[in-house]
Amino acid sequence: MKNLFFVILLVILAFGSHSQTASINWLTWDQAITKSKIDSIPKKMFIDFYTGWCGWCKRMDATTFKDPNVVGYMNANFYAVKFDAETVDTILFNGSTFINSDPNFKKQTPNSRGKVHQMAYGILDGKLSYPSYAILDENQARLVTYQGAKPADQIMGILLFFETDQYKYYHNYLYGQWNKQISEGK
Asked: Is the pLDDT assigned to residue 110 strictly greater than 70?
């Protein structure tokens, strides 16, 4: 475990000190899907679900998503998608059409919160808290969702855990810890 921590720390420092980009290269859903189809080695997708009225979303944009370590690592290893959870855009994906549940609501009541888009609702399992994040694998299968504003170190931990595929092996670690406690009589 100490070696893994040391490697992760080195990666963070390397990306932070060599980051040439001042901001994350945010993509739309369609841009990310297109890139995943043409890249020789597709990446995982990090989706930031936000709304125009969400103060914590704006704070994340001004702090966590400006952190040089987060910017460098995200740009190098993920398709970063900025997804307005209330967008009225129609999204075609895997033969299905996803729309806003009431695209005229925002036009009729411009100073209120809009209605949720079906894609956001589906990926977030109806847990509509903003900001929220999802990580999808290279085939756009959802791996995890998170809710709430996160500081840079927490986002880096999440990015590293999933980009390095540690999530695939974590159950082995937990099982080992459980067996250790049993053998020690705890």
From this structure: no
